[in-house]
Amino acid sequence: MEKLAELAKPGDTVVEIGAHIGYLSVHLGKLVGDDGTVVVFEPGSNNLPYLQENTERFSNIEIVEAACGDRDGPVEFWIEPLSGQNNSLDRNYKNFQVNRENAFSDAVMESVTVEMMQLDTFLAEKGLRPALLKIDVEGAEDLVLRGSARCLADIRPVVVVEVTENSDDVASIFEAHNYAIHDRSHPEWICVPTEKVNALRASGKA
């Protein structure tokens, strides 16, 4: 949260892809202020009621009830009944399997159909130029970034992304767009995932 406060400034447009129940949405809404905008993508029907209630007093937060990925249209989405934190486009998402075991639960994911949008499509329709992207999508990080190619190439926002799958693909996408990737060993405050750590990967302008 401290690092997001260094990135999100009053008046900024921020896109949050994957919001759970809106903890960081509210934080970002406060940071950008009344002159800023926070667009929140959240497809999970189990999370949306909480997200809507938690953000309803913020006129600068817009909720888009859709997944964000590499194509436009309906897509299969997996809802998990433990906490909603591991809803995923991946039926076999490993973090859910781990959390289920830790909870001594036999919960199973439920298949639903949700709408998916490419971020590039959405930004073009709305005429938005975000200063910051925050991505937390439980294994679909590479899909989101592939659907954001024009944004990365032309708008060049700072990107903060939790990487839990396909870290090499994510790094390749950033490198292809001439982004710098910061890690814990540098003083720039951002870390990258390793095989042992589920962490934040972020990119800034090269």
Query: How many domain modules?
Result: 1
Q: Could you tell me how far the N terminus lies from the C terminus, measured between alpha carbons in angstroms?
A: 24 Å
Output the structural class. alpha/beta
Mean pLDDT over the residues: 86
Instruction: Count helical runs.
Output: 8
Give the percentage of residues in beta strands: 15-25%
Q: Write down how many β-strands occur, each being a DSSP E stretch of 2 or more residues.
A: 10
* Spatial strand arrangement across the major sheet: 3-2-1-7-8-10-9
Reported for the largest beta sheet, the result is: 7 strands, mixed
CATH-defined topology: Rossmann fold
Q: Fraction of residues in helices?
A: 25-40%
Topology:
Blueprint: H1 2-7, E1 13-17, H2 23-32, E2 37-41, H3 48-55, E3 61-64, E4 67-68, E5 73-79, H4 94-102, E6 110-117, H5 119-126, E7 132-135, H6 141-146, H7 149-155, E8 158-162, H8 167-176, E9 179-182, E10 200-205
Parallel strand pairs: 1-2, 1-7, 2-3, 4-6, 7-8
Antiparallel strand pairs: 5-6, 8-10, 9-10
Describe the structure.
By secondary structure, this protein is α/β, with parallel strands linked by helices. The chain has eight helices and ten strands. It has one domain: Rossmann fold (3-Layer(aba) Sandwich). Helix 2 links the parallel strand 1 (13-17) and strand 2 (37-41). Helices cover 31% and strands 24% of the residues. The chain has helices at 2-7, 23-32, 48-55, 94-102, 119-126, 141-146, 149-155, 167-176; strands at residues 13-17, 37-41, 61-64, 67-68, 73-79, 110-117, 132-135, 158-162, 179-182, 200-205. It starts with a helix and ends with a strand.
